[in-house]
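Hey, quick one: can you model this chain's 3D structure?
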Amino acid sequence: MNAIVIQHNFIEAHTTINEISWEKAGVKLVLSENRWLDLIKIGSKYCKED
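Sure thing. Here's the predicted structure for all 50 residues.
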C-alpha cells in the first residue's frame, strides 16, 4: 500500500467532515497520537519472517 493512501485513510482527518476515514467506516482500531507508529506496530504483528 502506498504511504499516501495510508496517510489519507488512517492519519489525516477529512477536511469537510473532520473525521479520519477509518473512523467514519467504523473500523475499530486503538491508535494513539502517533498513528504512524501504531500502524507499523500493528502491521509488524502480521509479518512473518522466513
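One thing worth noting: The radius of gyration is 12 Å.
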